Amino acid sequence: MPPHSDIVKVAIEWPGANAQLMEIDQKKPLSSIIREVCDGWSLSGSEQFALRYADGPQLYITEQSRSEMKNGTILRLAISPARAARQLLDRIQSHGIDARLEALKELAKLSADPTFATEFINMEGIGTLARLVESGTHFGEMLAFTLTAFLELMDHGIVSWDLISLSFIKQIAGYVNQPMVDVSILQRSLAILESMVLNSHSLYHRVAQDITVGQLIGHLQVSNQEIQTYAIALINALFLKAPEDRRQEEHNNPLDQRLTEMASTLAQKHLRSIILNHVIRGNRPIKAEMAHQLYVLQVLTFNLLEERMMTKMDPSDQAQRDIILELRRIAFDGENDPSGTEKRKAMYTKDYKMLGFTNHLNPAMDFTQTPPGMLALDNMLYLAKLHQDTYIRIVLENSSREDKHECPFGRCAIELTRMLCEILQVGELPNEGCNDYHPMFFTHDRAWEEFFCVCIQLLNKTWKEMRATAEDFNKVMQVVREQITRALAMKPSSLDHLKGKLRGLSYSEILRLRQSERMSQDDFQSPPIIELRERIQPEILELIKQQRLNRLCEGSCFRKLGNRRRQEKFWFCRLSLNHKVLHYGDLDESPQGEVPLELLTDKIPVSDIKSVVTGKDCPHMKEKSALKQNKEVLELAFSILYDPDENLNFVAPNKYEYCVWTDGLCALLGREMGSDLTRSDLDTLISMEMKLRLLDLENIAIPEAPPPVPKEPSTYNFTYNYG
User: Could you tell me which residue ranges the ELMO domain spans (predicted)?
Assistant: First the structure.
């Protein structure tokens, strides 16, 4: 008799017949199992049949995927993928409109199955769909299903996008450019164009010739956020794939320009204001996919600064040296320069020292280190020209201070530029799972430069508050970095809002916050208190463990990665209330509340889990991806490894969910919880409990008479809400 682990108990359905309950031997060929099922219903020609899942995506079961079957799975006997592909291919070419519509509807659903897709593509099915689109005779639902099927089939990566014809591209671009077109057709057309751009260098050029900025702006002004998301995704794709030498070109009319030149487009007030007013400040909450696309747009925009950031100044270049002379002229009214060469040189040296350059004799040398390179000089010139009063005030204010307390403007501006590049990750590729966009960067045509101007004023203010000297330079920069990152974390909606947040984060406030956050580490260090802490720790750890397990029972929604199209794909995972089974399954949309276990068709017994791995040890982080898997994705990845040799892969939506799930799974397996969140919670809860107990003890009066029986110190009943 086969080992118990090789037997899977399932139910198999067939229309009009009672379901068969079977014990499937996983070592037995799938064709033999299908033959037995057909014999049970007296069906001949078993080679014309296959097994599919009855729930969820209803994928075909193959020899490669059969190991995913679990006990209790409901299957369905269906015609084989090859037979289904042949029938559908014949039906979509039939003359009957109703029959063709039903066939295309079924094809759109089946095309997501890789087994069916392979068979359909081998029968030249994609060419047939392309010709249907090129004919221009399909409209409405029929066209929408055709485009859906085409996109699903191409998404499997079986066929190269380079094989797509020019007439097909023009037809799809035509749907995008039409003023009135069905929403579902427009969505799929935008998604197809995006996939073309991302997957084919040659198609990028063809698409870019047929789509202009003005045509996409119209789709950003609609009330449908899905259409807006697809439109911004296409802009991002074209921007990402644009040749370096085409990104910086300028045009007289930005709305008529092609999308090969994206830098001038994104700098134009019209496009930026459309995104700000119709998307960011629209009447609807920003969904996760839209937030991701706005984040990508933000990253790609800032990445235009990379070239200047990595460009060293050439001390022999007179045009570049003239910029430094202009900074001096604006600050000190250079029209009154002395006529003698030596006197002028001496005055320049003095002025450059007052401007705060490190190299007083040749300040050009201060800009030879990259990053920030010439980007720092660009920022300084913008401040001097566009915010001249602020620039002159900062320079003159510091030049009149005592030497030991002067804030060196030049050195500070260069280091601040480097810091801002690090904070905003200039030059980094977008992270596939990140939604961290900042609305304020869409409120100004020169958002980067204005952000620098706000931060240089903050630096000058903080320098004065700290009464810093030259020796304190690095300390001041650390405080300024903390002020900026804390303010950005509050997601200010405008640059003025940012200024308000920074005003509330003075040096004294930063010290207060630091002290508060360190309190659990610095307080209560005497031996008796340390002993009390060690006694409390086990019960607090148990409290945290129970909270983590409760969160696993509530479950979490995870976004499927690797999906370049803008259809949101989600899956949900939660622990059973008895802590014995993990239930999971695909969802059509992000859930608003708890997902019932009945909707989660897949499960893993906790007893089968062998280990939990994180980061680069995860199987899905070892696989190649079309997008760069950067540090941020690695930090959110974890996998469950379970018997026999299977894995369930996760990428958490944020660091908090990552810590909750990895800690919860460790607690479930009886292992130590070691995340930063657990350590932070442990310190916080222990400190709170100790304060309550110490306060309780302080309130006990010392009696003169023999003392009564002392009461037990109160145990803090803590319910921690992580929601």
Answer: 319-488
Question: What is the residue extent of each domain of the chain?
Answer: 7-79, 160-244+261-285, 310-518, 537-680
Query: If pLDDT is split at 50, 70 and 90, which confidence band does 444 have?
Result: very high
C-alpha distances in Å from residue 556, one per residue of 200, 261, 636, 650, 661: 36, 41, 14, 11, 9
Residues 6+ apart with CB under 8 A from 679: none
| 630: its two tokens | 């950067």
Contacts of 359 (CB under 8 A, 6+ apart): 352, 365, 366
Please tell me the least confidently modeled range out of 156-160, 183-187, 256-260, 276-280. 256-260
* CA 661 to each of CA 130, 554, 682: distance values in angstroms, whole numbers, following the listed order: 45, 11, 17
Report helix, strand or coil for 122.
Answer: helix
Whether residue 604 contacts residue 669, with contact meaning beta carbons closer than 8 Å, is answered with no
Q: What fold, for 537-680?
A: PH-domain like (2.30.29)
Measured distance between the N- and C-terminal CA atoms of the chain, rounded to whole angstroms: 50
Distance CA(664)–CA(658), nearest Å, equals 10
Nearest to 392 by CA among 467, 315, 331: 331
CB distance 205 to 182 below 8 Å: no
CA 610, distance to chain mean position in Å, is 30
Which helix (H) or strand (E) is 586 found in, with range? strand 581-587
Give the rounded distance of the alpha carbon of 691 from its chain centre: 40
* Identity at 217, one-letter amino acid code: I
- Which pLDDT value is given to residue 700? 39
Beta bridge mates, 490: none
pLDDT tier for residue 74 given thresholds of 50, 70 and 90: very high
The two structure tokens encoding residue 185: 């057709």
Other C-beta atoms within 10 Å of 32: how many? 11
Q: CA-CA distance, 307 to 304, in Å (whole number)?
A: 7
Q: How many CB atoms lie within 10 A of CB 51?
A: 22
Task: Give the tokens for residue 547.
Answer: 């909270």
Residue with tokens 């690797």: 562
Instruction: Inform me whether the pLDDT recorded for 711 exceeds 80.
Output: no
User: What is each CA distance from 449 to 67, 239, 394, 444, 582, in whole angstroms?
Assistant: 56, 21, 17, 10, 50
Contact assessment for residue 196 and residue 204, using Cβ atoms and an 8 Å cutoff: yes
Tokens linked to 276: 């700000």
- The per-residue pLDDT for range 314-366, each reduced to its tens digit, is 999 999 999 999 999 999 875 566 565 677 788 889 999 999 999 999 999 99
Asked if residues 71 and 40 have their Cβ atoms less than 8 Å apart, the reply is no
According to DSSP, the residues that pair with 472 across neighbouring strands are none
> Which residues have C-beta within 8 Å of that of residue 181, sequence separation ≥ 6?
175, 189
Question: In Å, how far from its chain's centre is CA 571?
Answer: 17
For the ranges 3-12, 113-122, 376-385, 389-398, which has the lowest average pLDDT? Answer: 3-12
Apex CA 347: angle with CA 473 and CA 345, to 5°? 105
Going by their DSSP bridges, the two strands 73-79 and 556-559 should be labelled as unpaired
Please give the structure tokens belonging to residue 50.
Answer: 């296959």
Which three-class secondary structure string do you get for 643-677? CCCEEEEEECCCHHHHHHHHHHHHHHCCCCCCCHH
The tens digit of pLDDT for each residue in 643-700 reads: 777 899 998 988 888 989 999 999 998 888 777 677 777 777 776 776 666 555 444 3
402 by DSSP, 3-state: which?
A: coil
Distance CA 385, CA 449 (A): 12
Biggest CA-to-CA distance, the chain: 110
The fold adopted by the segment(s) 7-79 is Ubiquitin-like (UB roll) (3.10.20)
β-pairing, 73-79 vs 637-642, is unpaired
Alpha-carbon distance values, 108 to 48, 447, 559 (Å): 22, 44, 22
